[in-house]
Amino acid sequence: MIYHAPVNELRFALQVHGRLPEILALPSAAGLDQDTVDAVLEEAGKFAEQELAPTNRTGDLNGARLVDGKVLTHPDLAQAFAAYRDAGWLGLRAPADYGGQGLPAVVSAACEEMWCSANLAFSLLPMLTLGAIEAILSHASDEQKQTYLPNMSQGLWSGTMNLTEPQAGTDLAQVASKAVPKDNGAYAVSGQKIFITWGDQELTENVIHLVLARLPDAPAGVKGISLFIVPKYLVNADGSLGARNAAHAVGLEHKLGIHASPTCVMQFDEAEGYLIGEAGKGLMYMFTMMNHARLGVGVEGHAVAERAYQAALAYARERVQSRDIGGHSKTPVTIIHHPDVRRMLLVQKATLAAQRALYMQAAAAIDTAHGHPNADEAARAEAVLNFLIPIVKSWCTDNGTVLTNLAMQVYGGMGYVEETGAAQYVRDVRITPIYEGANGIQALDLIGRKTAADGGAVARALLADGQSVAAKLATVDAELGAQLQQALALAEQSVADILAQMTSNPELAAAASNAYLNQMGCTLGAVALARAHLAAQDALADAANAPLGEDFYQTQQHVTQVYFTQVLPQIHTHAALVHSGSPALLAVPLESF
Amino acid sequence: MIYHAPVNELRFALQVHGRLPEILALPSAAGLDQDTVDAVLEEAGKFAEQELAPTNRTGDLNGARLVDGKVLTHPDLAQAFAAYRDAGWLGLRAPADYGGQGLPAVVSAACEEMWCSANLAFSLLPMLTLGAIEAILSHASDEQKQTYLPNMSQGLWSGTMNLTEPQAGTDLAQVASKAVPKDNGAYAVSGQKIFITWGDQELTENVIHLVLARLPDAPAGVKGISLFIVPKYLVNADGSLGARNAAHAVGLEHKLGIHASPTCVMQFDEAEGYLIGEAGKGLMYMFTMMNHARLGVGVEGHAVAERAYQAALAYARERVQSRDIGGHSKTPVTIIHHPDVRRMLLVQKATLAAQRALYMQAAAAIDTAHGHPNADEAARAEAVLNFLIPIVKSWCTDNGTVLTNLAMQVYGGMGYVEETGAAQYVRDVRITPIYEGANGIQALDLIGRKTAADGGAVARALLADGQSVAAKLATVDAELGAQLQQALALAEQSVADILAQMTSNPELAAAASNAYLNQMGCTLGAVALARAHLAAQDALADAANAPLGEDFYQTQQHVTQVYFTQVLPQIHTHAALVHSGSPALLAVPLESF
């Protein structure tokens, strides 16, 4: 269960897909250079390997417990969190104005991959804190920012997101928690929230809950929902901690995985809360941080699969069983020699490379959208980001389940035994297609707001961009180039299909949305690996331009070949489903299921 | 977590795919008629629903434990087993000559689906006992049969299979356990066996271990392996139980799922054992029961997914969330209205129908192979069976993971919470692609012994048979007919591809074997559902010939439509992988993974 931080892979992905040189040239990255980024990756890798990775199984075996109203976690986690905080990792992308380091999203995404690989359940605590920081930074008053952000950016206080209620999951319009104005300008917040990750814990001095609730006179539906800060401990005027607020964890869920992270039922009983921004805009405020959160979940799905792959690879290199099929050996060989084991491993490796490329592209779009001085460039990046986010979130997390199961299969019977750790990856990763907007919701987002809303403009621009990559690829490898051109043509047809269905009958498009999303993920992944292939070609042609060594770049070209022949052919299935799969689904009477 | 035995689906599958009228006409089925079969299914369904299904979660929560050398399971399991035994269910397909009922494989397979849906972990105890019965019946001496089979057929004694050792999993040639002749004609069996399902327990009076071991002078490799009966308690000449034998469970695995069933490390310390048949033929003897066991595991993968589907469907009919996309409703609707939820449910339903069809075909082939008076017919059935077995085993179990995960996804966040039961199905089913020959081994079996060995004759015969079904289908529905013809043409091409690769470079075929197996499963599933479509068409045309009611047959036709548009398109991906996917895999140097 050792974890090796894939620092070289991350450096390569940062250059090729994260457009690091461009990002470092943005005014918002002033003072940061390539050497510093390299140093950050090295140190983060060490921290993930040495401090976090060893806590993964301990945390799984010793899940969070609710004892006498307190949420208790294993001491190893507290120790790891203290080390993480003290090393400044939490503040990596927290705002510099409030004690964070304000690093670009591409750099922090690379680090987040490593945190999530090392210990997914742990990583959710800083991830949610950063989400809360982002919401407060974007919408709260200066006084509120001063009160909460410095301590949160340093990891002294954590942040939580209280959205879901039993009757309001995907459908947040049903939120029923109430906030009644008090004499002191604050609000008395009451209600029950469920599925609150790290909703309470003893690792930080305070927990800052962001809570969706309704004012007494609020209209029904989403426009009546406001956002409140509800601290676990009230904060005195001098910044010291005051009274315990009536915000309590009253239950923990028994989950398939991520045992180390408490998933709380939170009870608010006239807890003191403070309105963020304007009343009625709570959901909109939450959505401003959704892109980063959804990108983060995509990284989670990817990261757990990366670690599972490493474990399966190590096992395949060590386990001796049966002679090789080619008959080269007279004695049993390590199972990595067996072609089907190679298939399982390389499908993982190739898919991981494509996933890393896509999340890096999305992170670069965040940096460009937020930091590019040219408004048109920033807007273009924002549009690309909006298109990529549901894809990164869903494709990397559905793949997460597929890939961790492939990793388990490499182990054979040993994979089913919990001690080897393969099972934990399968269990842990399974939350990622569910939370932060179930993948079905992501697919609806992709066909609606992200495709139909602009008449397919961004989708087509990305595919056109892909065509220029394919043209270059064809000059290096005619067959790969032709494959990519065919894939792009199929994707263009699917965009047209979805646009037509959205006009003629949106239910058809909705029934095809999952296939459309997977086709886009698979195709854009191929475009990205085509870019990687070309970059590797350049590096191999010029040793001075090949800092990671010849073998590394040759491996990237192998990875592209494997992806094109083993993963990309999935598009034929997806395209068929988008084109004509839905009518049969919709024709089945609901009582005939 | 209620389970509804799908008795009507099973009756339909028995008629159409299990060829029940033909099977009942075999001499081996003398005395059995349609009404009796219907009654058996009804009673088995009730037993599964009422006695077994409620023990599923109890067994999961209260896993087997090893205490003071005894393997303890939850009392509910003992009670359920006693009821199961007393009702005669264990003996359903046990030999009539030794106290069983000797029912056809098609009927017992239908019942086994229900046992496995109701409680997979429980079902393994009778399943393994039946495997041991089969091995003893086929290869042991008359005296051995008389000593063990009557009590085993009644479920008073259980049977176990002791094959795997730490260094000998897939590669049984590495078995190292020893058997040294004793003065009394018996053998002293010593060694450690792992992954022994229900290796010990307190539910039966005795446990009859079948153990692979080597005689002192045995050659290395598979030809040195012999099979021994090693009872937990020695059996006295009068049939009473004697001394405790030195065969002990010394450890239990901590597994991802099937917690109720103990997976034992078995230690044999000069335990008294009795040679079955001839020395050196142990592995061959084991293989004679392998077909039935592998069919059984395919049924397991299918059955757990069936129950997961039922649970997800019930949730989707009950959970209210968001308005419908078509805008027909002003208020939130049950989530079954949402097209992507319908997709998830119907892909499960359609795949389940195809799986049930394939395992029924295989079971009918067992009955025909064993019972047909015409030797040619029997041999033909045997060949079909041999081809189908790796497909049923792998396709139904890999699908098992996919389908149970789809079921969990329907639940959203509630699916990740153990209390809803969706997680248990995901955990339990995951053993099925691993044990009884990992699915990679099944795929090698399919390309080698089952395809290349006869030059593709059986494969092509099955596909030719499919073409005649497609021709009939085309007269009823031209589009479905054309789709099936296209699928069969692709499958024929893949047979040719595999045969060519087996000749040119078997490693290419091995790397493509998984895709080939999945393509065959997917395509033969379509042929089967085409048959179902035609049978439903006949029933709908003649009410006198429609015992299950008009709605039932209309639903079967919907299921075929969904399968053809949502599941069958996977063949395009599989065919591409078979045709040209392997070279890139094999080109990657092992050190570059």
Automatic annotation (TrEMBL), chains A, B:
GO MF term (any one): oxidoreductase activity, acting on the CH-CH group of donors
InterPro entries, alphabetically?
Acyl-CoA_dh-like_C_dom, Acyl-CoA_Oxase/DH_mid-dom, Acyl-CoA_Oxase/DH_mid-dom_sf, AcylCo_DH-like_C, AcylCo_DH/oxidase_C, AcylCoA_DH/ox_N, AcylCoA_DH/ox_N_sf, AcylCoA_DH/oxidase_NM_dom_sf
Record-annotated Acetyl-CoA dehydrogenase-like C-terminal domain positions: 478-588
Any Pfam family? Acyl-CoA_dh_M
So what does this thing catalyse?
3-(methylsulfanyl)propanoyl-CoA + oxidized [electron-transfer flavoprotein] + H(+) = 3-(methylsulfanyl)acryloyl-CoA + reduced [electron-transfer flavoprotein]
Q: Could you tell me the keywords of this UniProt record? A: FAD, Flavoprotein, Oxidoreductase
Give every Acyl-CoA dehydrogenase/oxidase C-terminal domain span.
280-445
Q: Which domain of life is it from?
A: Bacteria
This protein's cofactor list reads: FAD
Where in this chain does the record put each Acyl-CoA oxidase/dehydrogenase middle domain?
A: 161-270
SUPFAM superfamilies named among the record's database cross-references: Acyl-CoA dehydrogenase C-terminal domain-like, Acyl-CoA dehydrogenase NM domain-like
Outline the extent of the Acyl-CoA dehydrogenase/oxidase N-terminal domain: 38-155
EC code(s) of this entry: 1.3.99.41
Q: What does this protein do?
A: Involved in the assimilation of dimethylsulphoniopropionate (DMSP), an important compound in the fixation of carbon in marine phytoplankton, by mediating the conversion of 3-(methylthio)propanoyl-CoA (MMPA-CoA) to 3-(methylthio)acryloyl-CoA (MTA-CoA).
What family does this chain come from, according to its entry?
A: Belongs to the acyl-CoA dehydrogenase family.
The name of this protein is 3-methylmercaptopropionyl-CoA dehydrogenase
